């Protein structure tokens, strides 16, 4: 069943653009048992914290502040869609582990993670590395790095059902009223197709496994996809034809986007959570709702901490983008309780049943 777009509301800080920052959406679905009691369930989404002892120590502090604020406001389950670390350094994986554990998040019931390209390949962080990185990346053992990622966050995969024997992705995990599909969108290195490791794709095995999954596994659940790569385009006209746009189209793309979106539509996915482009945004493609959370702690020009909140209560699920009135990279301590929100409506697939 497809629910039409309606009831647009907006409030809070000014919008960057129609599909831009500080938006939220109300999702109406019939995914709940009639007369079943329920309590509100809050899924939180962030992405791309890029933890690095060597290069981005400020991100460590920012993520701590963000997590403190998220937990203070209430969080049943946290989804992080990749680039947890920036250089693929295993020591930074363990920094992240310690940090999540210190907030009581390092277990499957509380935290879902999927890999980003920086978790597997790292990236250039100094000017000199821009030249050496294309050579360095050839020596990266993609499959070994993927194993290290899985080992580092092993507790987060407990109880998740893998859809391909012997592989971690894709997996299905229940989180309250949500069914999370965790996907690996990190494409292996290729001189022509993925020279910097930053392009994404769902490989054929994952496609087949998802096609076989169908729509009736957890028919009353709200189906949410978590993966790293993006489906949105740059909206700022000034950059549409810029060098950045050309670089993005060559080295920062989700390949087979249309085919992937068609698959997710057929699977009656309600919401796709992703990262990769360092900004927060809620947008629609082909009546699917997407939320990017990659501006959580870094690179956004307004330099405020952000997260996406997906709240399920009674028979409604609402997604909103929350911008804290607290900038990162400041020296003061404590987290402001002030939050900006605004709302817009989007279509949703109700889950369950074929057709
Ligand atoms: Fe990133």
What does this structure look like?
With 355 residues, this protein is α/β, with parallel strands linked by helices. It has a single domain, classed as 4-Layer Sandwich (Purple Acid Phosphatase, chain A, domain 2). It contains nine helices and 16 strands. The strands form three sheets. Strands 2, 3, 4, 5, 13, 14 and 15 form a seven-stranded mixed β-sheet that branches. It has a seven-stranded mixed β-sheet with strand order 6-7-8-9-10-12-11. Strands 1-16 form a two-stranded antiparallel sheet. Strand 8, helix 6 and strand 9 form a beta-alpha-beta unit. It is globular, with a radius of gyration of 19 Å. Mean pLDDT is 80; it is low at 1-23, 26-35, 329-337 and 342-355. It binds fe (ii) ion (FE2). Fe (ii) ion (FE2) binds at residues 48, 50, 83, 116, 118, 276, 278, 294.
What is the approximate shape? globular
CATH architecture: 4-Layer Sandwich
Q: In what range is the share of β-strand residues?
A: 15-25%
Number of strands: 16
Order of helices and strands: EEEHEHEHHHEEEHEHHHEEEEEEE
CATH homologous superfamily annotation: Metallo-dependent phosphatases
- The helix content is 10-25%
Number of helices: 9
Rg is: 19 Å
Question: How far apart are the termini?
Answer: 8 Å
- Return the average pLDDT rounded to an integer: 80
Oligomer: single chain
Structural class estimated from helices and strands: alpha/beta
What is the CATH domain class? Answer: Alpha Beta
Report the sheet with the most strands, covering strand number, pairing sense and barrel closure. 7 strands, mixed
Taken together, the total number of domains comes to: 1
